[in-house]
TrEMBL record:
<feature type="compositionally biased region" description="Polar residues">
    <location>
        <begin position="235"/>
        <end position="249"/>
    </location>
</feature>
<feature type="region of interest" description="Disordered">
    <location>
        <begin position="223"/>
        <end position="249"/>
    </location>
</feature>
<feature type="compositionally biased region" description="Polar residues">
    <location>
        <begin position="296"/>
        <end position="312"/>
    </location>
</feature>
<feature type="compositionally biased region" description="Polar residues">
    <location>
        <begin position="63"/>
        <end position="73"/>
    </location>
</feature>
<feature type="compositionally biased region" description="Polar residues">
    <location>
        <begin position="133"/>
        <end position="142"/>
    </location>
</feature>
<protein>
    <submittedName>
        <fullName>Uncharacterized protein</fullName>
    </submittedName>
</protein>
<feature type="region of interest" description="Disordered">
    <location>
        <begin position="17"/>
        <end position="191"/>
    </location>
</feature>
<dbReference type="InterPro" id="IPR037176">
    <property type="entry name" value="Osmotin/thaumatin-like_sf"/>
</dbReference>
<feature type="region of interest" description="Disordered">
    <location>
        <begin position="284"/>
        <end position="319"/>
    </location>
</feature>
<feature type="compositionally biased region" description="Low complexity">
    <location>
        <begin position="74"/>
        <end position="132"/>
    </location>
</feature>
<feature type="compositionally biased region" description="Low complexity">
    <location>
        <begin position="21"/>
        <end position="42"/>
    </location>
</feature>
Length: 319
């Protein structure tokens, strides 16, 4: 508790100190030295004066305390709440750290436990892509890395709806729904899908009956062989590009070859490329010309039409 000292109180305290320093209290009646009666009388007067000073001092102190207790602005009447007991908003006190505080009581979330960080590290490319009950499990039988994309009818021919990355010898699966059709193709060494790529074509009707075939009509950048697991196959696993006519072969940035497809036979390169592939492969396992499905059974590429299997395996090898 703190009480302000008024000028009157200060004066009384000074008188009291002067009286004590005079030594009158120490030479009062009953002294061992046997002082005279006049000296005793003087002491009695000083003691009376001293008592009067004490009474006035106590009265002033009492008055000061009463004024303090009735003053609402006094620090002693209503002491401020200690900051340690209830820290203000935004305080960094460990008892109630503010939002975003790095206090050890409430550590910030670690990036390593975020769902996002987990999805990135657990998403392994080349295992499976796409959705649906129909599957094509593809093995890379070439001597280079492959990016295989799935393209649905009516969609983009450069941006696949699903894709898998396969190293040599690695296997991955592409899935598709009943009622969907399209094709699977391999990208070039730069990761771009070209219109001249080999195609593994598929279509599943609403009941899951499939029609798969292999097409080199637009070109051949990979050999493709597919099986339904029940004895039906299409395509081939030969590497024939090295012997193709030079005018009918193009190469990408890594030197991977593409044999020019017949397409519509409008250029000499198309005619030469189509003729070369037909001579090496025939038309009974893969499309070389758009109308090969009109051929007799022995030379008709539609060897897997109306297939009840929904699970296929395929090899993508060198062209």
């Amino acid at each position: 508790m703190s009480t302000s000292i008024t000028p009157d109180t200060q004066s009384l305290i000074q008188e009291l100190m002067a009286a004590m320093q005079s030594g009158s209290l120490s030479s009062g009646t009953g002294s061992a030295t046997g002082a005279s009666q006049s000296s005793g009388t003087q002491n009695s007067q000083e003691e009376a004066k001293l008592a009067e000073v004490f009474q006035e001092l106590m009265a002033l102190l009492k008055q000061g305390n009463q004024e303090t207790s009735t003053n609402p602005g006094s620090d002693t009447a209503s002491p401020a709440i200690s900051p340690a007991a209830s820290p203000a908003a935004g305080s960094s006190a460990s008892a109630t750290p503010a939002t975003g505080s790095t206090s050890s009581a409430t550590p910030a979330s670690s990036d390593t436990s975020s769902p996002a960080a987990t999805a990135v590290t657990s998403g392994t490319s080349g295992v499976s892509a796409g959705d649906g009950p129909n599957t094509t499990t593809i093995t890379n039988t070439s001597n280079h890395d492959e990016k295989i994309g799935q393209f649905l009818n009516g969609g983009s021919t450069t941006q696949p709806t699903a894709e898998i990355d396969l190293k040599p010898g690695q296997t991955g699966t592409l899935k598709y729904e009943n009622g969907q059709g399209g094709y699977d193709a391999e990208a070039d060494s730069s990761g771009n899908f070209q219109s001249t790529a080999s195609r593994l074509e598929f279509y599943a009707d609403a009941k899951g009956v499939n029609n798969d075939d292999v097409s080199y009509i637009d070109g051949r950048n990979a050999s493709i062989k597919v099986s339904d697991g029940n004895g039906k196959t299409a395509g081939d696993s030969q590497s024939i590009a090295s012997d193709a006519p030079s005018n009918a072969v193009t190469k990408d940035a890594a030197g991977r070859a593409t044999v020019t497809g017949w397409y519509d036979g409008s250029t000499q390169d198309m005619k030469d490329g189509g003729a070369y592939m037909e001579s090496k492969l025939g038309t009974g396992n893969a499309y070389i010309h758009p109308d090969d499905d009109r051929n007799a059974t022995s030379s008709n590429p539609m060897t897997m039409a109306q297939d009840t299997s929904q699970h296929y395996t395929a090899d993508f090898g060198d062209a």
